Amino acid sequence: MATGISTLTKFIRNDLSKDCHSLRLLTISDGEVQDPANVQTEAAQLASLIKNEFTINSQAVRLFTSSSQPDTKAVSSLLQLNNVSNVNLLDLQTSLTNIEIIATIASLFSNDSLNRHAILKSDETILKSTPWQTTMNNTLSLFPGENLFWLSKLPTGNLIVGETNVKIHIKEGLTVDTYENLLKTKIEYYINQLKILKIVNTNE
């Protein structure tokens, strides 16, 4: 599996179109991984390369056969790349029909809006998509509906979406109630992300 991740890293670095800013990744495990330590190393290197540069929907499937038990930790290592939706570590049986397996896997990506997003650009490197993120960015993907993101400091430069300058309205400090209202639509997503980070034993 480590070889596969290394090949993916090289492809993204050297061969992927520079116009590509969104990725859909699917990892399938149908047995024990022989190189778990190398998998974690390669996955961490891939995460550092692309997680803050691309909009990524990464999902995983454990495919159960009659003779083997799929890996959990190694296959979850690529779920940490997901930055657009809840991640799924889906269990499927090979006894299902091909049509049932295909439909289930396709549903993991059906509503991710990767083909309908805008880019927020900042003059400063202060944007982050999660409150625990330590690496700041100067761009962030925005999706249809309400968007919640974090700033390392109050912006002093321009924020732009497309060709439009974003007007900044600074409101009163957060209270417990306003904080709850902000997070209630995201709390399930954050908990989901933290579970994956716990599985793969990484901080970000």
Automatic annotation (TrEMBL):
This is Uncharacterized protein. It comes from the Eukaryota.
